[in-house]
Task: structure prediction
Amino acid sequence: MTLVNKTAVLEIRDLRTSYFTEGGEVKAVDGISLNVPKGKTLGIVGESGSGKSIMALSILRLIFNPGRIVAGELLYNGADLLKKSEKQMRSIRGNNISMIFQEPMTSLNPVYTVGEQIAEVYQIHENMNKKQAMSKAVDMLRLVGIPSPEKRVHQYPFELSGGMRQRIMIAIALACNPDVLIADEPTTALDVTIQAQILELIKDLQQKLHMSVIIITHDLGVVAETCDDVAVMYCGKVVEYADVRTLFTAPKHPYTVGLLNSLPRHDVDKEELEAIKGSVPSPFELPEGCRFAPRCPHAAKICFEQLPELNKLEDRSQVRCWIYTDKWGQQPEVNRTP
Amino acid sequence: MKTELLNVKHLKQHFPIKGGFLGRIVNHVKAVDDISFTIYEGETVSIVGESGCGKSTTGRAIMRLDEPTSGEIIFEGSNLLALNKRQMNKKRKDLQIIFQDPYASLNPRQTAGEILEEAMEIQNVVPKSKRRHRVIELLETVGLAAYQADRYPHEFSGGQRQRIGIARALSVNPKLIICDEAVSALDVSIQAQVLNLLKRLQREFKLTYLFISHDLGVVRHISDRIIVMYVGRIVEVADKTSLFEHPQHPYTRALLSAIPVLDPDRKKERIILKGDVPSPIDPPPGCVFHTRCPYATDRCKEEIPQLRTAEGAAGGHQAACHYMEEIQNGSMERAYS
Ligand SMILES: Nc1ncnc2c1ncn2[C@@H]1O[C@H](COP(=O)(O)OP(=O)(O)O)[C@@H](O)[C@H]1O
Ligand SMILES: Nc1ncnc2c1ncn2[C@@H]1O[C@H](COP(=O)(O)OP(=O)(O)O)[C@@H](O)[C@H]1O
Ligand code: SF4
Ligand code: SF4
Ligand SMILES: [Mg+2]
Ligand SMILES: [Mg+2]
Result:
């Protein structure tokens, strides 16, 4: 168990990021508080549109118009990133907190060799000359398991496979030995055998380099295999936050339970999957009260009226659901699935 | 008695690569390289394998969306590749295909109702006066509501658009539906809804599915039998249980072992393959898997292994590897693990 037990390298406190669009305010990240424990992995899961990527980009302060971080604190080793100057942030992005994205092709520059792109990090942030930087680039390629790195440094992104490109992205992200690596769907575009290689690589490097990792994914299998703590997001809010074992052995929020039940399992046969009914609401038509209420098989009257808090339970997990409060009990169920 | 619905024989799809300033053919992408398989009425057969192994090409060749290089595609006894254009268009009523991205295959300027009516008109399956009624019936069959007939594709969510794609395929009463990554882009909660729908429709309308997917969890759920492809070839074919419980081919073993498990306490023994999938332009000689196989020998570099049933394996379970028995009884050394 690690939840809230270890010193946190990064503390996210009541983070709020909104997009101000013609249709109105989209509260993409709506009051999120999480800890990234030192040397451990925090997983963020949730369906598309739940605010995972915006949360990650907010940590690096890479939110642009019409988006804005409207409130919160991002305590990195105790100091609030939201109070840093843009210049200080650039240095933090280069030296302390790095990010890798889902599609490595779009984040690599097609006109530079992969070696030049890794070397650039050393030239800018460690003032190395080109020759020193290139030799460090070769070391990094070797570290991320790329065969014949001396040859590969001179290749362009299009000459490499998807798995190789993702390794290059990891090499760039790790070039400056960050304390925190944020990986946003790092294996979603990859095949399972390559996914296994990349996850193994991230775990391996994390131990070697004593990094903290945030893995963002929609794949609960990836979470089970790589994370220490997990936060489940729905419509911009954390609905459940627990250590990985508690989450998988005793899931509590009806949405988490629904996600686990709706997964086809490769190790268990069932005739019918227990799908969650309905779909994620539009950010402009969020239900009052619990945002999951229109889809929840247990929803009661109170669920449609008041938003539940994220409550701490005895096993130290946190759940945003009326069932786990004193107010439950006499609530009439109004929404039972047939 | 099982009735054969589709019989693919020695299918090859080699796409020419043009080069030089004369645009001459300089090489070929051997996207599908001599594959054969049978699908029986009412069953679901899946094709799995990593991206680029030839799954979609196989589906497109069966539909004759691309003309195959060679082979035969026998559907209900007649070779589709021998039909002329008019005859083939008529046959398309019996074979439908659903793609991953329903948005790309739905005309944004047509309402859901118009999309379905058009499909019926092309195949002339329902008299004009009854089409509107049938549209409503189809929408309800796939879990949409009558009032949604007048909505445009952009007014639907991803899952709902895929339901329209399914309704369109159903509108002509097909016998075989090819689902090419049909649920891959959907979030899990929606994916479960669509998978349940596909299963229910199969029971109700006695449909046969060829299900193409890279997601092994989905494949296990939906399939009766599974075909595993690697660089344009079939390396293993078996019924679902036999494949998942007793994989014979080293590639299948690695593929299955790579799936993340949902139990954080279970440490799975994982076979991490070295290297990358080879290019189908110059596939390795001999066994296509030999460049990554931990058991490869010199023989594997030269001799192409044929699909066969290993000693002691279930009937109908076939794989293409020279050393299945030796690997099974542990007498083969692994070069790496
Ligand atoms: N540039 C933008 N303008 C308006 N809304 C946006 C923008 N980027 C993201 N959003 C909204 O923010 C929400 C969260 O998005 P995101 O964090 O990308 O989700 P996830 O990564 O969980 O799939 C979504 O509702 C999305 O529509
Ligand atoms: N029209 C085409 N022309 C040339 N190469 C093609 C064409 N279609 C597919 N390919 C190539 O054939 C191989 C198999 O592709 P595909 O069948 O789409 O794989 P899968 O669906 O298994 O991911 C890939 O290498 C792909 O690049
Ligand atoms: S608060 Fe109510 S509606 Fe929301 S998840 Fe809990 S039971 Fe369901
Ligand atoms: S034939 Fe040889 S290379 Fe191919 S799978 Fe079998 S052992 Fe491996
Ligand atoms: Mg995202
Ligand atoms: Mg495909």
User: Anything to note?
Assistant: Residues 115 and 168 of chain B are 7 Å apart (CA to CA). The first strand of chain B starts at residue 4 and ends at 19. Chain B touches chain A through 42 residues (CB under 8 Å). Residues 188-205 of chain B form the longest helix (18 residues).
